[in-house]
Amino acid sequence: MSLAILDAREWQQTVDLRTGQPREASGPLVDMVAGLVGRRPYPGDRDATCNDWVADVALELVERYAPRFAFLSFSEQFYSLRHSPLTKAEEQARIDGAFAAVERFARESGFTVVVVGTGELVPAAVPVDLEGLDGLAVSSNWCAHYAGLYDASAADLEKLANHPAIAHVAAKADILSLFGGSQADGERLPEHMVAVKEGHYLKGTSLRRLYKIPQPSPVIPVSTKLGPVASLTDIRPALLKLLRTDKVALALVEGVGCRQFPLPYQTCANGRGWFAYEPGDGQFLAISKGQHSIFEHNGGYRYYQDDTDDKAYPYSGFFSEMPTGTIGEAIAERSIAVGNRSMFMHMLTGCDIACECFARNLYNQGVMAVIHRQDKYAGK
Amino acid sequence: MIRCDVCERRCPLGPDTYGYCRMYHAPRGQVEERFPDRWCAYATARMETIPFYHAWPGARCLVVGTAGCNFDCRYCANAEVVKVDPAGQQDVMLDVSPEDLVAVARKRGCRAIVFSVNEPTVSLPTLERVAAVAKTAGLVMGCLTNGYATPEGTARLGAILDCVNVSLKGLSPEFCRDYLGVPDVGPILRNIKDLARTTHVEVTTPVIEGINSHELGEMVDFLAGVGPDVPWHAFRLLPEYKMRQEDYPSVAAVGAQVEAAARGKLNYVYFHNFIGSRWVNTLCPGCGEAVIERHSLGCGGDRLQAVHLDGGACPRCGEAVALRGDIDPATAKEACS
């Protein structure tokens, strides 16, 4: 059973991750993790110390748990550039801060750190409203570029084909064909997926003004320590190979593309054909599993359909089942995940322990630590 | 120049005079909206997220909002939407007619439309038009409000809403002035009573330890006078906006104060707005059995987990549980299995 320790500052509740039911739990690992997250409250998604929180928690876990692999995300600059009106200098300071936190972790932990930029942010120039369609267009809060389309009429498709903001409309069959899926793989794909042009973004669910948005990049930067990788799905096997000789950390620096990447890098493909991942769950999962994840997670799925009272993993966002084949599962030695991406690090990485912020729509609720494996630890 | 009759600020309005909320003007000698049918966002959620715990449990709803507010709460959670000039927001607002909004709700399988991002009285005519179409479509209408409308405005809200969650934030004039930007709580207390006579009312109180926590007993006494079945949601304050640097209130301390204040006076008391709260289940007022279970994900993220009612009553002692509307069919099926 995976346990989740929910820390709301000076107050904790431990629950069964799958059911959400409270559990009385103790033991060397539970006590260690509970103490750690209790001592290290999350400062908030746009707080200047947010990325330092990731490094600090990861370093303490390195000291106390002695992992061989760490999956880290550094996302403060992603939130800040996206939702705050920053000057160029402020933007650069935020990005520099992220890389400084990564560098500090590398220096103090002794890990070989492979850094991946998840893609550049561009100015949010033109909002796109798809509400006038006969069918239903569904976009999500954190996905600005793609929408799912359901029950589209012929007039809808013609309108979208001539829409100045629309870059692409793909039918489900086209997506399945592009990624080599069978009909059975399409259950969570929308009937059509709509992609908007650069600088355009889909409106609807985001309360806050968007200043910058992810521009799904055909390629993303990967630090050269890893060796050659052609696609983001090649990162995983290369990491596993590197783990034979080194303690390794994968650091995903969010909202950063090739132009802002300060380290020696190579590029790898960030999708296939017309589809490129936005920073987020689908991209993380593709990296973690070493295979494309568009069938499981895409910006057009109607997640609200799964939001029923019997939904499993109630504290895991829109996940209703645990992904399989994640990188943490493939590593026999101890592994950790730490990040300021909420509610999915513990699902997508599969690492023994995951410490992540519990923030919803930038509202700072605290920290969630998930313990998937207790059997590798007897105390320290 | 005329006086606005929607909220108790009763601001002067003219062709270019917009009042405190900046959402109304009077170009033709009457109160008119400046930005009718303009929405900041909408999202699909469940009634528990508003929160409504005793109205259409588990029902999917379309959560909507506009811009602007008539309060100046120091801890406003949506300041980036409601504290900025609505005129400057129009480039990113959705222009959706009442008919199209109701159509969206229906396409998404929603049972209700709930206005909850900002204060609904700043867009009352738009809300009325949506409600008229929603009623024809058989949809429930709800809102979250600070309760500072005039009697006329409150009557208009009561006439169109099936459920209202009123925020009773504090009682003393000092608190109202310093933390909310209004002179006193009188209109809010009056409106809670008025609304409770015409529609389903739940009440929410964000608790700031040491600031309004000493008023909890008095608030409970007032609510008990309105009716012991009024569900009361005590919120652990989430420090935002001007209070972002403040400490989070202690869950243990505030929880104890809430419990002590409400014991034996109100039948349905909840303490939440933080992850993993243990105080989100509905307990039978007769025997204390947990008859509705929920998960708390903090700020606007509560979920229905299970319903154990037998025909609207406690299966153990038979005591009726106060609910407005039916339980979402999926939940009822789950409860029966």
Descriptive report:
The complex is a heterodimer of chains A (380) and B (337). Chain A is an alpha/beta fold and 380 residues long. In chain A, the strands form six sheets. An eight-stranded mixed beta sheet of chain A has the order 2-1-20-19-18-3-14-4. A four-stranded antiparallel beta sheet of chain A has the order 7-8-10-9. In chain A, strands 5-12 form a two-stranded antiparallel sheet. The longest helix of chain A has 22 residues, at 88-109. The model of chain A has no long low-confidence stretch (mean pLDDT 94). In chain A, α1 (28-39) packs antiparallel against α2, α2 (50-65) runs parallel beside α4 (88-109) and α3 (76-83) runs antiparallel to α4 (88-109). In chain A, β19 (353-360) and β20 form a beta hairpin. Chain A has helices at 28-39, 50-65, 76-83, 88-109, 154-161, 172-178, 235-242, 281-289, 345-348, and strands at 3-7, 12-16, 69-74, 112-117, 121-123, 126-128, 136-140, 143-150, 166-171, 192-196, 200-202, 212-214, 219-223, 248-253, 265-269, 271-272, 275-276, 335-339, 353-360, 363-371. Chain A has two domains: 3-122 and 214-371, no CATH class; 124-202, Gyrase A, domain 2, CATH 3.30.1360. Chain A is globular. By secondary structure, chain B is α/β, with parallel strands linked by helices. Chain B has one domain: Aldolase class I (TIM Barrel). In chain B, the strands form five sheets. An eight-stranded mixed beta sheet of chain B has the order 6-7-9-10-11-12-13-14. In chain B, strands 15-16-17 form a three-stranded antiparallel beta sheet. The longest helix of chain B is centred in the middle third of the chain and has 14 residues, at 124-137. Chains A and B meet through β2 and β20 of A and β6, β8, α3, β17 and α10 of B.
